[in-house]
Amino acid sequence: MTVQGLELDFFRNYVHAEARFSPGVNVICGENAQGKTNLLEAMAYLSAAKSHRARYDRELIQFGVDHAFVKGEVHAREREFTLEARIHRGERRQLFSNGVRLKTAAELSQVLNTILFCPEDLSLIREGAAARRRFLDDGICQLRPKYAAALAEYRRLYEQKTRILRDWEEKPSLLDTLDDFNLRMAQVGAVLIHYRAHFIRRLADLAPPIQLEFSGGREKLGLRYETVSTVTDPEAGMKTLLDQLLEHQQSHRRAELDSRQCLTGPHKDDLAVEVDGQSARQYASQGQTRTAALSLKLACRELFREDTGEWPVLLLDDVLSELDHRRQAFVLERINGGQVFITCCEDDKQIARDGMRFRVKNGQLL
Ligand SMILES: Nc1ncnc2c1ncn2[C@@H]1O[C@H](COP(=O)(O)OP(=O)(O)OP(=O)(O)O)[C@@H](O)[C@H]1O
Q: Which of 34, 58, 63, 359 should be mutated for ligand 1, with most atoms under 8 A from CB?
């Protein structure tokens, strides 16, 4: 799949921009703070109506303006699509595909998939479990609309249960509904675990060879799914998962009431990442961290290809500047095949000589 053209109005620092892109490599150069990341963010937004760095859609709207508009012409599944996002301050965003209003962001992902790698992705290795859960959720949501729906329901249930646990002492009648919430959370939680387990198993096949090649045959990457402790096999059937989740809830019932927190369920899941058998979070060097994060993203890209039959659009933000020439060459070699956008600070002619080049200056694409 490819983004053939992009149009932006009042998106971040772009007042208006239009561009046509190469189906291969597109190099986006420019000095700091000119709008390179904003451009990749706009493309990623068209695939999932989410930004990797904005908490609220309103952050995407240009300062002092009340709306933003992103339009992409996308070639996917041997067809042409026009995807549009209209973002208004204080209103719900509106998404369209070929002029038809979409009900959910998951419908965008059925047309366009993107994989973004940016400097913040080092947090995938370095930080707590939340960053890795986000990585899993973003990947699976793009591929599986059912997972996206289950995740949204789980989040709603989690918030409601958290409110019950917070307020039950003041309002004991709230406890009447706790068992119903627990059952539904275990049912939806089993769905999340099922999808996550399969996704991680496939990543665990795809990522280690990338890390090995990346590191010149030196580094062995290991991935392991860590979920609720009573779950003996995350790939077991739904009924087994449900029973094991209910068992965990039961054993934590008192602790939840005492601590007034939701202590049981896949909202605490993690993806353990190891390099040469040691926890990457604790022991990986800067270079190993960057390599492991990039290997995970490139593995995700290959998984998407296996699943949809098409390469997702790869968005590499500021990835090459930190790598030595051998690793740069490896990345450029590895990304052959699909459409790629790479940002860089200086106009390095060595990078992707066959690709199209763009210069970004003060919110203008030249
Ligand atoms: N909502 C907004 N309205 C207007 N400008 C914004 C908005 N959000 C961010 N900007 C500005 O957009 C500019 C470009 O940001 P961007 O992150 O795209 O830079 P960049 O070219 O990737 O730079 P770097 O190389 O430093 O990463 C920044 O100066 C930022 O302040």
A: 34
What is the residue whose two structure tokens read 């939806």?
Answer: 188
User: Of 276, 292, 309, which one is at a domain's C-terminal end?
Assistant: 309
Picking from 282, 309, 336, the residue at the C-terminal end of a domain is 309
Is there a single domain that holds both residue 302 and residue 317?
A: no
**11 lies in which domain range?**
1-113+310-366
> What residues does ligand 1 touch, defined as CB less than 6 Å away?
12-13, 30, 32-38, 59, 61-63, 318, 345, 360
Place of tokens 């992902």: 109
* Cβ neighbour number for residue 366 with a 10 Å cutoff: 11
Structural domain includes residue 76: yes
What local confidence, expressed as pLDDT, does residue 215 receive? 87
Using alpha carbons only, how large is the chain's radius of gyration in Å?
A: 22
Q: How many CA atoms lie within 13 A of 5 on its CB side?
A: 11
pLDDT in tens, 41-63: 999 999 999 999 999 999 999 99
| Beta-ladder partners of 69 | 9, 86
Predicted ipTM of the assembly: 0.96
Query: 357: which residues sit within 8 A by CB, 6+ positions away?
Result: 26, 27, 29, 347
Residue 120 within a domain: no
